[in-house]
Design a protein that fits this description.
Structural class: alpha+beta
CATH architecture: 3-Layer(aba) Sandwich
CATH topology: Trna Endonuclease, Chain: A, domain 1
Shape: globular
Order of helices and strands: HEEEEEEHEEHEHEH
Distance between the termini: 61 Å
Oligomer: single chain
Largest sheet: 6 strands, mixed
Number of helices: 5
Strand order of the largest sheet: 1-4-5-7-8-10
Number of strands: 10
């Protein structure tokens, strides 16, 4: 095709690259939680990892550096908070695997913690991002436990996430609006 002045237009559709998506899930959830708080929608926070500081260095009063520390107790899950009067507790994980999520990525004490939250009528789930194929799911603890109790497998196939999980679609504000899924589930429970 002959373009006016002989200049070809630049490609306006850019290829979306999903490189360096590792650890972005946590950043996106943190950003979403900040958005929810700023809009008075929900109050959900990242839990700090419990550590005991053993050795510090104080080069100056305002620049203390931790030199040695260790984990005091196993942490439970990544996030917890309140939404519409419901207690929410969840763990966020990423995998580069295209076909399954390895169960060893979630510790047994975290699964037990989520099970306890669910038993006391809290909302308990995991968010799993398959970074290579850019799919992010919510899988509620009941479905996770059903899989664990009825399978010998050491990983959850992606088709299980497709059948039992909820895909979180990318959005603008926040980029990972996981509360849309919670709303759908709550609406479904109110209709029963």
């Amino acid at each position: 095709m002959k373009y006016p002045s002989g200049i070809k237009p630049k490609n306006i559709t850019k290829d979306i690259k999903y490189d360096n998506r590792g650890m972005t899930l946590e950043k996106e959830i943190n950003s979403a939680n900040e958005y929810y708080r700023s809009m008075d929608i929900a109050y959900i926070y990242k839990k700090p990892t419990p550590i005991k500081i053993v050795k510090t260095d104080y080069p100056s009063r305002d620049k203390a550096v931790i030199k040695e520390a260790y984990f005091t107790i196993p942490s439970t899950t990544d996030y917890n908070g309140l939404y519409k009067g419901y207690y929410i507790d969840f763990e966020a994980k990423e995998t580069k695997n295209k076909t399954s999520f390895t169960l060893s990525n979630i510790h047994s004490h975290q699964i037990k913690h989520l099970e306890n939250i669910d038993r006391h009528d809290g909302i308990a789930f995991i968010i799993v991002r398959f970074t290579t194929i850019n799919k992010t799911y919510i899988l509620f603890i009941k479905d996770l436990l059903d899989f664990i109790n009825s399978n010998e497998r050491k990983s959850i196939p992606i088709d299980f996430f497709d059948k039992k999980g909820y895909i979180i679609k990318d959005s603008l504000k926040p980029t990972i609006d996981y509360l849309k899924i919670i709303d759908k589930v709550l609406e479904g429970n109110n209709g029963n």
